[in-house]
Amino acid sequence: MRPSDRVKAHLERLLGPAVATTTGRDLAGDREASFAVATFPDQPTEGATTLVTVGLSSEPLTGPEGEQIRQELLLCAWNKALGDRLYKALFATAQAFRDLGETANPGAIVELDEPLAEPSGLELAFLYDPTYHAEELATVPAADAKGGEPIEIVWLIPITESEAELIEAEGPEAFESYLAATDPDLLDVTRAGEV
Predict the structure, then answer these.
(1) Between vectors from CA 91 to CA 179 and to CA 169, what angle results, nearest 5°?
(2) Is residue 179 helix, strand or coil?
(3) CA 26/CA 14 separation, integer angstroms
(4) Among the ranges given (10-24, 67-81, 162-176), the one the predictor scored with the smallest mean pLDDT
(5) Fewer Cβ close by (within 10 Å): the C or N end of the chain?
(6) Residue 121 pLDDT > 80, yes or no?
(7) How many CA atoms lie within 13 A of 80 on its CB side?
(8) Using CA atoms in the order 129, 48, 84, 176, what is the torsion angle rounded to 10 degrees?
(9) What pTM value is reported for the model?
(10) Contact 6/14 with Cβ under 8 angstroms?
């Protein structure tokens, strides 16, 4: 079974059927992409939507220690923010990692090409396990006992500039503590917040 077929089956088992699968050509005009973005309504909660790449994992990426890792990326938001910007941000971020040939490492910060929403959308994302979803969503199991690597799913959490400064100054663990203490709405891609 191809990695993208395993990903699709895993996602649909945990999130229900995708209501749409948007191709890279749909998102980037003439640029052909070897992956798509699947849309899952009412995930991780009613009134929100989860977007996940499908097919990014068809080629392994190089991890921080030289290991080969297959990954997909996830982004979720309230439906009021659902639009082209979210799809394009997920597509562009995934394509950037594909072009670099490097993994999206949990704990890192990525700069998005444009704000996720207008007028005050967030432009940074923290890479993390998809903890707003069932724990088992984070890893697509190996194809079988004989091989076929597991596939990681990494969540792009939109963050504010002050949250990024906290992460850069004190590390990802400080941000995790901040999240536990303040419980910000991570589905709100227009939220403001000072740490």
Answers:
(1) 35
(2) helix
(3) 26
(4) 10-24
(5) N
(6) no
(7) 7
(8) -30
(9) 0.92
(10) no
Cα gap 174→167, rounded to integer Å: 7
Predicted confidence (pLDDT) per residue in 148-171, tens digit = 789 999 999 999 999 999 999 999
Q: What are phi and psi of 100, to 5 degrees?
A: -75, -25
CB-side exposure of 27: number of CA atoms within 13 Å? Answer: 25
Matching residue, tokens 């949990």: 106
Retrieve residue 143's tokens: 């194809």
Given the structure tokens 């998005």, which residue do they identify?
112
Task: Give CA–CA dist 94/98, Å, rounded.
Answer: 6
pLDDT tens-digit profile of 137-146?
Answer: 999 998 765 5
Tokens of 69: 């890792």
> 61: which 2 tokens?
């990426």
CB atoms within 10 A of CB 26: 15
Q: What does the alpha-carbon distance between residue 124 and residue 134 come to, in Å, rounded to a whole number?
A: 24
Provide the H-helix boundaries in the chain.
3-15, 24-28, 84-100, 161-170, 172-182
Q: Which residues, in sequence order, are CB contacts of 35 under 8 Å at separation 6+?
A: 4, 24, 53, 54, 55, 56, 58, 94, 98
